Amino acid sequence: MTVVIALGGNALLRAGQEGTAEEQLANLKIACEQLVDIIRKHKVVLTHGNGPQVGKIVLQNEIAQESTPAMPFDVCGAMSQGQIGYMLQQQLKNEMIKKGVPGEVVTLITRVVVDKNDPSFQSPTKPIGSFYSEEEAREIMRKKKDQVWIEDAGRGWRRVVASPDPKKIVEKEVIKKLLQEDSIVLVASGGGGVPVIKEGDIYKGVEAVLDKDLSAELLAEVAEADLLLILTDVTHAFIHYGKPQQEKLQRVSRQKLEEYWQQGHFAKGSMEPKVRAALRFLQKGGKRAAIASLDQALEALEGKTGTQVVND
Ligand code: ADP
Ligand code: MG
Questions:
Q1: Domain assignment of residue 53, yes or no
Q2: How far, in Å, is the centroid of ligand 2 from the Cα of 156?
Q3: For 116-171, what is each residue's pLDDT tens digit?
Q4: Which of 232, 272, 296 to mutate to test the pocket of ligand 1 (most atoms within 8 A of CB)?
Q5: Is 304 within the bounds of a domain?
Q6: What is the pLDDT of residue 152?
Q7: How many domains, in total, are found in the chain?
Q8: Does 130 fall in a domain?
Q9: Known catalytic residues?
Q10: 275 lies in a domain?
């Protein structure tokens, strides 16, 4: 079967880690050991988050801007796709060689079209980069009229960007072509893709963040995937999460999950986008979506664990 796998942040960085290359490579090695057993039997398209990585790239650019020009946020996003894609190519291919699994791992820098009239552009909420003093923030806003800065809970001033809904993968046809090639394990749409808007026939990068789970859903449509598998650091989506009566969802229908979603069981910015991605995938004709923990990837693919979302 064809499966789109979305890797959560924990595949790259664990709580308390500093974010060195060695740490990320070691974490990815563990993730890739899991993935190889799936790649042996199935067509796999991988995608991943980039929050901590792109945050660090922005910081490096900010600190160094006296010596070399800082890159805009969309370029930083593309840099993070390259960085993580490279690490995945290394670690996954090495595991494939070790376990005698043929194939090549290829990373595609991926752009995702968003609507320039998306309401989130009117009220950006996603903080990026470091904290600044009010004076510094006001000075930057004077120079860069399109930037929005807010006072963040008494901790200082911080730039915020929009998180628009991902609409369409620009490299869609290339992805379809690459997937016809049996030997290719594709890494695409990293960090949710680089957001672009279309003005006439022209694409233009925008400084916004995309949700990797919602973009993974687009990728699953393009790949005509049999399964959208979202791997994270919890074993299931839960209702009443964190409360004494919390309950894991095992096999759940799209309709039931939608009810739970409307009741507000899934936290915004973490579990909610995964649930929305699963629901959307099924609404668009997908057969199955699963939310599971990274270390149970194969069992979840086989439908044995995790939250399995199905049509009926
Ligand atoms: P990822 O990097 O995999 O996207 P996130 O932190 O964004 O990880 O999302 C996973 C987190 O979602 C879990 O660690 C958990 O704390 C949180 N979460 C919020 N609501 C729920 C819920 N209802 N069921 C399970 N986990 C939830
Ligand atoms: Mg997340």
A1: yes
A2: 24
A3: 999 999 999 888 888 899 999 999 999 988 899 999 888 899 999 999 999 999 99
A4: 232
A5: yes
A6: 83
A7: 1
A8: no
A9: 9-10, 126, 212, 274
A10: yes
